[in-house]
Design brief:
The chain is an alpha/beta fold. The longest helix is centred in the last third of the chain and has 24 residues, at 493-516. The termini are far apart.
Length: 552
């Protein structure tokens, strides 16, 4: 019997983000990606969310490496945190490694790992895992599909992918090689991106966006163009640069990550434009508007991003005004719609024209839709299939697509974060939860688990807080002073004094009755309940009630 192989999903199955899986065999652990999830409005104050790294701490000495399939933060962003506790080599394409290196240098952690470059069609042994890397098209350069040979056969991990027949760099997803592996060896298990599994048809080619961008440049010849895109989307930036150079413009970058990634991509030959067409953003104000194109971060309206700061007049580098046309060359990530809308309004208030994907097709997805998923399934012809990378509905839709293509229901396994699937000679089985799958939140310098903290922050942010201070003599069984209400964010200044005094009256009555009964326990609970009922009855609000009992 061949040795079994376990795959534990530590993130990415239930959310768009924090992608991380651990493949285990013969006492060794191979990681597939180590990314973050960006917090939504239900996680106020969190910087980002990590995969379940606690599971890996218990296996620290057994991790033989981490394959980073591409350079997006939801696949590499947790590496600095993981490497605080663990040490393992990282395998990725040179561009992805450049992005990883930047993150590690920021934290002074380059000594915690060895960065090992891999290229298209390389075949590398990592521990006892035989890994082959196949080029794949996505919205970041140099993405890689991983074919991992194990005692239980080939595990094919699609990475994030699309089937673009006319990519900007000419580098297509190598379906022929996948087909050859399927024919010669067979693919035992397919792990495949599910992000666009609900959407019929195929994704538009990236080069089609270039045509639209050239039209935007042509339509605004005398205006400065500020184009916002993801800083890792070098193919998009290449097309912006091409349109700028063709129209006689200089190109400047705005935002630290855009500056870094722009330089890295040029250094690796992934971004091509003449040196004389590149200027520093500080020089851009010295050129006529029609001769400048600024490529900026902040397409998602992030509060401290370069474009959001410019939209509120707080940028050190550019002053947005009536000579500017701002192009948002992206679509809002779910949850970011309000921030993007607010930023657009701010830009328009400053006199700029704004072009976005709701008006023109200045963006296309980097994830394959249903027709592309069907093609990959047909070529790979896997024995077993687990949908990955997506929310629960995306995973379910992808499983349904596989079933409709004729895969037997016992060959399609749905899994969630924290669960482990096992490949044995008998087949593939879901062993259930082997770890909690909990969220681990980065709050400044701290990493914390559990959602209770955010529930409290939401109450504080939405309803305010009321502190009720009670000073008493337990020995004498009486109040030593009239209780005080101290509130923040509950009601406005014109109402607060009368309400606080009325609330104190009710607390006094309840506390005195409690003390007169001789009861020694439950005073804190009584004060919280009495104040909470008063506050809700009188204002219809539910602030956080904090009883402070001082016994003398």
């Amino acid at each position: 019997m061949a040795d079994p192989v376990q795959i534990t999903f530590l993130g990415g199955l239930g959310d768009i983000g924090r992608n991380c899986a651990a493949i285990e065999c013969r006492g060794e652990v191979l990681l597939l990606d180590c990314g973050v999830l960006f917090p939504d409005e239900d996680m106020p104050g969190a910087d980002f969310v990590l995969p379940d790294l606690e599971y890996l701490r218990d296996r620290a000495g057994r991790i033989v490496g981490c394959i980073c399939t591409h350079g997006h933060e939801d696949h590499i962003g947790a590496l600095p945190r993981a490497l605080e506790w663990l040490s393992f080599p990282v395998y990725a394409s040179p561009f992805t490694l450049g992005l990883v290196r930047n993150r590690l240098e920021e934290r002074g952690m380059t000594d915690r790992t060895t960065l090992i470059p891999i290229g298209d069609h390389d075949r590398v042994t990592i521990g006892s895992f035989d890994c082959e890397f196949i080029p794949v098209t996505h919205s970041v350069p140099s993405g890689l599909i991983s074919a991992i040979r194990t005692p239980q056969g080939v595990i094919l991990h699609s990475s994030d992918f699309k089937l673009d027949l006319n990519p900007v760099d000419g580098r297509r997803t190598d379906l022929a090689r996948i087909g050859a592996i399927a024919h010669d060896e067979g693919i035992r298990l397919l792990l495949c991106d599910s992000t666009n599994s609900e959407i019929p048809g195929s994704s538009r080619s990236e080069t089609e966006v270039g045509e639209v961008l050239r039209g935007v440049f042509a339509a605004h010849p005398a205006r400065r163009l500020v184009v916002a895109a993801f800083s890792s989307h070098i193919h998009r930036i290449q097309q912006v640069a091409d349109a700028a150079v063709e129209s006689g413009r200089k190109v400047a970058t705005l935002g630290l990550s855009m500056k870094r990634n722009f330089a890295l991509a040029r250094e690796l030959g992934l971004l091509r434009l003449p040196d004389h067409s590149v200027i520093d953003v500080a020089e851009s104000e010295n050129h006529p508007p029609g001769q400048v194109c600024v490529v900026s971060t902040g397409s998602q309206g992030e509060t401290r991003s370069a474009l959001a700061l410019a939209a509120t007049g707080d940028s050190r580098w550019i002053d947005i005004g009536s000579d500017d046309t701002v192009v948002l060359s992206s679509s809002p990530i779910p949850g970011n719609e309000a921030r993007v809308s607010r930023m657009i309004n701010n830009l328009i208030r400053r006199g700029a024209k704004v072009v976005h994907s709701g008006q023109l097709e200045v963006h296309t997805t980097g994830h394959g839709k249903q027709d592309e998923l069907r093609t990959l399934h047909t070529v790979a012809d896997p024995e077993f299939f687990v949908p990955v990378h997506g929310e629960t509905r995306h995973l379910a839709a992808h499983a349904d697509l596989a079933l409709k293509m004729g895969m037997p229901s016992d060959r399609v396994v749905l899994a969630r974060d924290g669960e482990q699937v096992e490949l044995t000679d008998r087949g593939l089985a879901n062993r259930g939860h082997v770890t909690s799958g909990d969220y681990f939140y980065v709050n400044g310098r701290l990493v914390e688990s559990g959602r209770e903290l955010f529930g409290e922050r939401l109450i504080l942010g939405g309803q305010g807080v009321v502190n009720v201070v009670v000073v008493l003599s337990r020995k004498e069984g009486r109040l030593l002073a009239r209780p005080r209400f101290e509130s923040k964010g509950w009601v406005g200044a014109e109402s607060v004094q009368d309400l606080e005094q009325a609330g104190v009256d009710e607390v006094v009555a309840a506390v005195e009755e409690h003390l007169a009964s001789g009861e020694k326990e439950g005073l804190e609970r009584l004060v919280r309940r009495t104040a909470g009922q008063f506050v809700n009855r009188s204002t219809g609000r539910r602030p956080m009630i904090v009883p402070i009992i001082i016994e003398i």
